[in-house]
Design goal:
207 residues
């Protein structure tokens, strides 16, 4: 079974305050041009996307230069629905394995499209980020617009340890109760700091 965790890219879809709007328009039409085509203008942090280290670190490392293996891996779901902060929990020591992709379910994704989605989201604590770093996870995925707020120290801490951040996930609740799954979160092969992405969970069959 495949679970799609990605928001559809739409004209004027919700974007982080201050970011450029998404423009998706049909540029050619069958009745007048004999074929259909669409034109897209989108910033790399709209909708479901992956933040790369270049986003907030003073480095010249485009996301297409990262090894593709970093975007695929065994997933683990942390259910923290309703929490205002995502903090360290001793139980995570056993549940998170080295090299995994950690998906955090906060329930905040239900507010996607509302103004409060970008202002009142739960954030990660330094202790939780330190756990992810110590576990050497590949990525952390969130159903929120960001793991932190200005001055974005959690972002920078994770990036400094080569941990990527998936933001604005959708349908994360569908992973509840699933024991084993793989995350495939592929960015565009694009020379940019970050990238919009198609993120899916492939549920593993029990032996």
């Amino acid at each position: 079974m495949i679970i799609d965790l990605t928001h559809t890219i739409l004209h004027q879809m919700p974007v982080y305050p201050g970011d450029a709007e998404t423009v998706l328009e049909q540029s050619k039409h069958m009745n007048s041009d004999s074929y259909n085509n669409h034109q897209l203008s989108i910033n790399m942090h709209a909708g479901t996307h992956i933040d790369g280290p270049m986003h907030l670190l003073d480095i010249q490392q485009y996301i297409d230069e990262l090894p593709v293996e970093q975007f695929v891996g065994d997933g683990v779901l942390l259910d923290v629905c309703g929490a205002s902060t995502i903090d360290y929990n001793e139980q995570y020591e056993a549940s998170i394995k080295e090299g995994q992709i950690v998906i955090v379910y906060t329930g905040h994704g239900e507010l996607y499209g509302q103004p409060s989605y970008f202002t009142d989201y739960p954030v990660l604590t330094e202790e939780f980020a330190d756990l992810l770093i110590r576990k050497k996870v590949k990525m952390v995925g969130l159903d929120t617009p960001s793991p932190d707020k200005y001055p974005f120290d959690i972002h920078k801490s994770l990036f400094g340890s080569s941990i990527l951040i998936i933001e604005n996930l959708k349908h994360v609740h569908r992973l509840l109760g699933i024991q084993a799954f793989e995350i495939i979160a592929l960015p565009l092969r694009i020379q940019a700091d970050s990238s919009i992405a198609r993120v899916i969970a492939r549920v593993k069959q029990e032996a």
